[in-house]
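Run log, item B.
One chain of 184 residues. Sequence copied directly from the ordering sheet:
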Amino acid sequence: MIPTLTTPRLTLRPHRLDDFDAYAAMWAEPAVVRFIGGTPFTREAAWIRFLRHAGLWQHLGFGFLAIADRETGAFIGECGFHDLKRAIVPSIEGTMEAGWALVTTAQGKGLAEEAMRAALGWADEHGTGERITCLIEPDHAASIRVAEKLGFSRYTDGLYNGRSVVLLARPRGSAMTGIAVEEG
């Protein structure tokens, strides 16, 4: 079952088909993908990414959630966990890899941290493995700051698709405080 989580400003919920146009628009924004591969997604590539969310939940018991503004209901991003079997050195295969992305207009307001605190709270209780990982491009200072606020620590540098990445991890089960979360 895919959870729905609410925070003071956000609703984290399963992706819905009617999210797709906003989802595709987000992944086409140069500012969104600047540190996530660097190339805006075509509508087709966004569709493939969109569809994988259902498969992650079905096969792994975890995945990504759509982030909606709690007041307006508007889709503003996504966050959660995946295991993409990445060809990365060193390997993070078999871990819950955390990730988040927000539309440009939602960035810089603390929403990524708020959303991920809720997602990590869920993962600490329902997730798998001893640690949760994330990979971030070294120049993406804002995401590195968010990860550190969430309890992730840098443990090594890696190489993914010919690009340098910072690998971070936090123990699963680390208590996350400071935000009220309701699971529905």
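Observations after the first pass:
- The longest strand covers residues 163-171.
- The chain has a mean pLDDT of 94.
Flagged for discussion on Thursday.
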